[in-house]
Structure formats: structure tokens, C-alpha cells
Amino acid sequence: MVATSRQAQYFTKEGRLILTGDVDVIDAQGQRIRAERLVYNLDQERLEAQPAPGQQVKSRLRLSMPLNNSSPGAQNP
Hints:
6-stranded antiparallel beta sheet; lipopolysaccharide transport protein A fold; mainly beta; globular; 48% strand
């Protein structure tokens, strides 16, 4: 994962990373999120992204289907 921003703050006791200013995060699978402010809780692996005033958070996610294409309750012919 690669992240860029204008400012980064890491709080070791809280296990929290705060990125602010033109935040852009992209992972190895090409999933991306862009925001003005991003707070990442390392212990909970929880991410909160906030947009700039009057803007929206932008994200690009790739969803994959299970290889067996079966779901609970599905019947095979």
C-alpha cells in the first residue's frame, strides 16, 4: 500500500495514523481512495475518510466473486 498526503501524523499510543491534505491511497490490487483527511486505526483496521468542504471522497474498489460462484441457498441443476 502506498499513501501520499501533505501531512502525516502517527500516534503510537493510540495506534492511529492521520493523513491530511490531498490524501491518495492505493494498494497492490489497484484499489484507491482519495480524500482531504483520512484517519486509520491500526488496531481495529478501520478507516475513516473525510472530503474537503463541498467535495466528495472518491474511491475505486475491485470486487471479486468466489471461484465456485455459489451462494448460500443457491441450488445446482
